[in-house]
Amino acid sequence: MDDPWTPSGSGVNGGITSGDMGGPGLQNATRGDLPAIMNGQFGKAFEQSFKEFAQRPENKVLLEKHQRKEVKKAARLARKTKYAEFQDKVLTADYDAQKNIAPFLENRVLRRVIHTFCNDPHNDFSKWANNRQVLDLLHSAKKMMDEGRMTEDEAEEMMYQIVSSPDREWHHEWKLKTKQSVRLPTEQLLGALNEHLEERRKGNDFYRQKKFGEALKQYERALGIVELVVGMSGYDQKEIDKNRIATYLNIAAVNLAVKNLGQCIAFCGKAIDLDGGNIKALLRRSKAYTMRHEYASAKEDLERVKDLEPWNAEAEEELRKLRKAVEKSKVEQKKFYGGIFQQA
C-alpha cells in the first residue's frame, strides 16, 4: 500500500513547485492568465498538493504558526482601522465634546467606553460626549478606579450595562457602589449645612473679587457636603436639595464668567432637574446658549421663564439681546456667503 505521507512534490516537506507543474509556462504567465490557470489542471493539482502538504504531521506546526501570524496581522489591521475611525470622530467632534472626553482618553477602560460613542445610529458622537449623565458616569468611574475601590473589569462591565440599558437594575447598583452618602438626623444635618454655607460664602467673596478659580474650588467643596448627606425626613431632604440647587447655580455662574459654556449649561441642567421652574437656572442657561450661538435653545429657556413670570424684566432684556444676536448672525452669514459667490 502506498505511504500517504510520501512527498508528492520536490518542494519543502513535499510541497510542489512551479517546476513540478511545468515551470517555464507558468513563469511566463501574466496576471490575466491566473484565473484560467487556477481553474484548469494546474489549479486542481495545486489544491490536491496543498491538501497533502497540510496533512503531513511535520507541517502541522508550521501551518498553525502561519495561521496565528495571519490572525494577529488581521487583528492589528482591524485595530488600526478602528483607531483611525475613532481618531477621526474625536477630531471632527465639536470643541466641548473634545474637551469633555480628554481627561478619560488615557484610561484604557474609559477609552473603550468612549469608543462606543461611534456606534450611535445617527453617527452623532458629540451627543454622547456632551451628555451630562454619561460624563458624570465617566468621572465617577475614573475616581473609583483611581482610588482602588473598583477594578477595571468591574468598571467596564457595569458601564457597558448602564450605557446600553440605563433603566435596568445595573443603574441602581452603579449608583449604590459609586455614590457615598450619609443619612443624618436633623441636629447633625444643621451642622453640615452650616459648614456648606460657610464654604459658599467664601466662594461668593472670591466671585465678587473676580477670582473665579478660587471661587470654583470653594463652591466644589460646598457641593461635596450637600452631595454627601441625605436627610432622614422629607423636610430635611428638601433643605438639602435647595442648597444643592444654589451651589449648582454658583458653579454655573463661575463657568459663565470664564466662558466655559458647556459646564455652565450642564450645572444649570442639574438645577433644573431638581427644580424644573427655577428662574435663575433657566436665565443663566439661556445666556450660555446665546453665547454658543444655540439660539433656538436660548429662546426655549427664555419663553419658559416668560410663561412662569410674564413680568420678568431680565427675561425681556435677554430676549431683546437674543433677537439682536440672531439678526447680527444673519447679516454676517449673508456677508460671508455673498463674498464666496462673488469670488466664484
SSE run: HHHHHHHHHHEHHEHHHHH
Number of helices: 17
Structural class, by secondary structure, is mainly alpha
Regions with little confidence, pLDDT below 50 for 5+ residues:
1-25
Per DSSP E runs of 2 or more residues, the count of β-strands stands at: 2
* CATH class call of the largest domain: Mainly Alpha
Strand fraction equals under 5%
Helix content: over 70%
User: What's the CATH architecture name of the largest domain?
Assistant: Alpha Horseshoe
Region (Disordered): 1-32
InterPro entries: FKBP4/5/8-like, TPR-like_helical_dom_sf, TPR_rpt
Protein name: peptidylprolyl isomerase
Biased composition (Gly residues): 11-25
Task: Identify the notable features of this structure and list them briefly.
Serine Threonine Protein Phosphatase 5, Tetratricopeptide repeat; 344 residues; mainly alpha; 2 strands; 17 helices; two-stranded parallel sheet; disordered N terminus; elongated
How would you sum up this structure in a few lines?
With 344 residues, the protein is mainly α. Helices cover 74% and strands 2% of the residues.
Explain this structure:
It contains 17 helices and two strands. The protein is mainly α. The chain folds into three domains: 12-57, no CATH class; 80-177, no CATH class; 186-335, Serine Threonine Protein Phosphatase 5, Tetratricopeptide repeat (Alpha Horseshoe). It has a two-stranded parallel ribbon. Helix 13 packs parallel to helix 15, helix 14 (261-274) runs antiparallel to helix 15 (279-291) and helix 16 (295-308) runs antiparallel to helix 17. The longest helix is centred in the N-terminal third of the chain and has 36 residues, at 57-92. It is elongated. Residues 1-32 are annotated as: Disordered.
